[in-house]
């Protein structure tokens, strides 16, 4: 009897197991049928969704590193320097046209003045043939563009000239504090032209030159004495002398420490701007 009971239990278990397997097979078949009925998604859409999902995720460590590392600045187009006229005047090539630029707020020595050539060379070394950025201030009475030149490394050429002692801060036209401080430092440390015990400002140099030119022009139109083109006179070739001498043995002429020139009276008057010495005149 016990064997019959065991066979009965085994038979029932096998029946239940077979029924469960059949039920799972039916469910799996129904699920496969539903999947076949759905439309197949477009591959491009799937890839785009995957890209969006990937972009939305970012490693926090990588994000922090990106914040600490500044991005490189974008390259900005500049204007090429194609000429240097003097320390404070350059020529830029802008859109295929040459533009003369007068540096704002600075005044370098004239070319025939002390440090004039050195100032021009300094500017040439800094910018010639390079791409620079121009910050326009205005136009001057000569039609030149007045502005600040920014060097490729971000420094201002205007400030560099003053800081290194190759230009004055042009206070008559600028109240720039940076330029004023740059000149104060250059003076203090005797850089460039400030090593000279008595430097002459370019505006004073130009004023004196204009006065001398006017004086020379006036003497060139002076009325000559009779026989001046043939009469021989003598003059001391010194900037401190303003006269010519008819008598070579004149005591005043003998005190001359420079060369004594022999010229006609007309040349002495019109080219040297001299007048007749009254001390030894007859």
From TrEMBL:
InterPro entries: SNase_OB-fold_sf (IPR035437), Staphylococal_nuclease_OB-fold (IPR016071), Thermonucl_AS (IPR002071). Residues 28-46 have a biased composition (Basic and acidic residues). This is Thermonuclease family protein. It holds the Pfam family SNase. It comes from the Bacteria. Keywords: Endonuclease, Hydrolase, Nuclease, Signal. Residues 28-80 are annotated as: Disordered. Residues 80-196 form the TNase-like domain. Residues 1-18 form the signal peptide. SMART domains: SNc. It comes from Pontibacter aydingkolensis. Gene3D superfamilies: 2.40.50.90.
